[in-house]
Protein 1
Amino acid sequence: MTLDATGKMQFLYALRSRGVTDGRVLSAMEKIDRALFVKGLFSDRAYEDMPLPIGSGQTISQPSIVGIMTQALQISPRDKVLEVGTGSGYQAAILSQLARRVYTIDRYRRLVSDAQAIFDSLDLTNITALTGDGCFGLIKQQPFDRILVTAAAEDPPSPLLEQLRIGGIMVLPVGQSDTVQSLIRVTRLETGFDYEELRPVRFVPLVEGLGD
Ligand code: SAH
């Protein structure tokens, strides 16, 4: 299913009413068709504001949360961004519209190769998708202007804090259980880090090591 003009307006209206107000984020989400990233059984629900299963026990995030996290990152066009948790690739595709370069990493090889095939079909050449344990970040490409983690950890992984440029921003869900998590924004200052709590969220856990 692809969206007609009315469907598109409804999708954007729902995003706005849930707090996605940044014009650049909304146009990126208008341009990147979420249905391409939702396969099989659930594809006809791609424009509903809910997370959906994508295989390997993982989910594509709810569109309004994708919008809110992207907005919270305050990306500028020259930024180099790291995303931990490629999943379907949808969030990375949105980031690719706003940033100069996006590195995205997932512990499941299959998710990375499926996402890469979609990036290729959309000619999103500024995304590099890699299989690996994102808890360690991506040493070779550091420092990053922005880091987005789309799986929940108890605390921000310290390698990610270290790979953030001074003045850089990281957005991630943190929490000690599957049910109670907060989305936080970390800003790296010259002298340390500033932490800001944004809202309650619910994400799959950040898991160490590679998937099957
Ligand atoms: N951003 C995705 C949704 C991510 S779901 C989208 O737009 O569809 C969370 C993802 O984080 C899952 O795919 C999971 O495999 C991945 N993940 C969990 N722990 C990880 C780790 N240590 N390193 C890399 N990816 C991880």
Protein 2
Amino acid sequence: MDRDITICEVGPRDGLQNARTIMATADKHRWIGALAAAGLPEIEVGSFVRPDLVPQLADTAEVVGQALTIPGIVVVALVPNAKGAERAIAAGAHKLTVPVSASRAHSLSNVRMEPLQAVEQVRRIIELAHTAPHRPTVEVGISTAFGCSIQGHVSEDRVVEMAAELVEAGADELLIADTVGYGNPAQTRRLLGKVVTVIGTTPVIAHFHDTRGLGLANVAASLDVGIRRFDASVGGLGGCPFAPGATGNIDAEDCVFMLESMGFETGIDLIALAALRERLKAWLPGERYSGHVA
Ligand code: COA
Ligand code: ZN
């Protein structure tokens, strides 16, 4: 499949970590299977974090194992530290995504580490992954890159500096995340433009939350500076439980609709996504579903 844009669906991780319901492992597998059938090339299926803190994702090893039986998808799992990376590598995940906060306050709340300690963990995770037999890809994500709901302002220069440092540490891919939906299109163009210039050929993925309704505007601004990879979730589920006020990711249906109507190929079947959204509402009642096109 020729695609101009790669979308990674993050609902089974970003969406579930904030959900009221603990979803059955079998339903997660149906969800992931339906996403793959709709043409999603990458799916973040869970996280290897403390199960007592995020019980919704305690079954991630099993979910990864089932996802690996689906042909043609990249199976992604979030890991906050070396212990999480060991678990993800043992489960066979194709790609690890490691969050590092640009905000000190969010770093302490989310992963209980100073940002410097978190970067140290990144180095250990890269070493573990790159020496593992199946050599999973390591994506490092800079969380709260556009602002933080605990600390407030986040320095743009600091984000660019971190991006360079993480690539130097060996990150295969870099994700820039607006964890709490603080970004606007001018800021997006400026910040991502600088990041792209500084880090060279390492792929950059943009991760937006639609907390204040600017998620898709920020996707459009990212396109202007050459970004071609985005995270999104069907139904716009999502939100970090350790960042107050965070709401859902950008809605995958709206994102696919916008990109396709702008002339980009996503390889994703919009009608299948809309149908999946209805199934999700039955699996996860009482969640906040966003989006327009469905
Ligand atoms: N998976 C499972 N257990 C883990 C773990 C992981 N990735 N990392 C640490 N642990 C366990 C340790 O083995 C230890 O267990 P023990 O007491 O039985 O020996 C215990 O947790 C404490 O270990 P420590 O290294 O001190 O970790 P911590 O308590 O400071 O927790 C995190 C750090 C990051 C693992 C934890 O804060 C966490 O899971 N946060 C969730 C973050 C998240 O999901 N955010 C949203 C997505 S970005
Ligand atoms: Zn997120």
